[in-house]
Write a structure and sequence with these properties.
globular; Rna Polymerase Sigma Factor, Chain: A; 188 residues; Arc Repressor Mutant, subunit A; disordered C terminus; single chain; 0% strand; mainly alpha
């Protein structure tokens, strides 16, 4: 017997493919938060993350007719769109000089953008540390630990094997450990 959640998702997508505006709204409500968090941790800017997230859903609406279930969840298709749009964003940006991790952390302390300095600093420190990883490693860490996806789901989104995802995760965590210090704290 098919998982009822899978059947429900198939039905929702079918309705969206029939241009049911309620179905599009349900898709948006169901997936917005995860897609936004993924993009936010990739781009590091709230306003830009909101814009790119909206672009993801516009593109999804425009091309939902072409979506077919092939054993991969619909969310993997959305995250693939998000990943492509983030890459496109960075390609369009002029090559700005890259700040060192230390400069990024100092900037996070000197220019807090939220009233909760400790929480904002932690988020900025994490984003700064993530920027030291390869693109694939960043995606694995964000999808696994920020969005809470399984290795299988991450593999489906990235088009990799579960083994490759585990390897990327291991290397990424080792790199983050070196960058943030063994205790997980930001170095002084």
């Amino acid at each position: 017997m098919k998982d009822p959640r899978v059947h429900e998702e198939h039905e929702l997508i079918r309705r969206a493919q029939d241009y049911d505006p309620v179905a599009f709204g349900e898709i948006y409500e169901r997936y917005y938060s995860g897609v936004y968090k993924y993009i936010y941790y990739r781009v590091g800017d709230q306003s830009l993350a909101e814009d790119v997230t909206m672009e993801v859903f516009v593109k999804a609406m425009e091309s939902i007719d072409g979506f077919t279930f092939r054993g991969v969840p619909f969310s993997a298709w959305l995250y693939r769109i998000a990943s492509n749009l983030v890459v496109d964003h960075f390609r369009r940006q002029p090559n700005l000089p890259s700040l060192s991790l230390e400069e990024k952390l100092v900037s996070a302390v000197e220019h807090p953008s939220a009233p909760h300095l400790d929480e904002e600093f932690s988020h900025q420190a994490l984003r700064a540390a993530l920027s030291e990883l390869t693109d694939d490693q960043q995606q694995v860490i964000i999808l696994k630990f920020v969005d809470g996806l399984s290795n299988l789901e991450v593999a489906q989104i990235l088009g990799k094997t579960e083994g490759a995802v585990k390897s990327l995760q291991h290397r990424a965590l080792a790199s983050l450990g070196r960058v943030l210090g063994e205790s997980g704290e930001v170095p002084a």
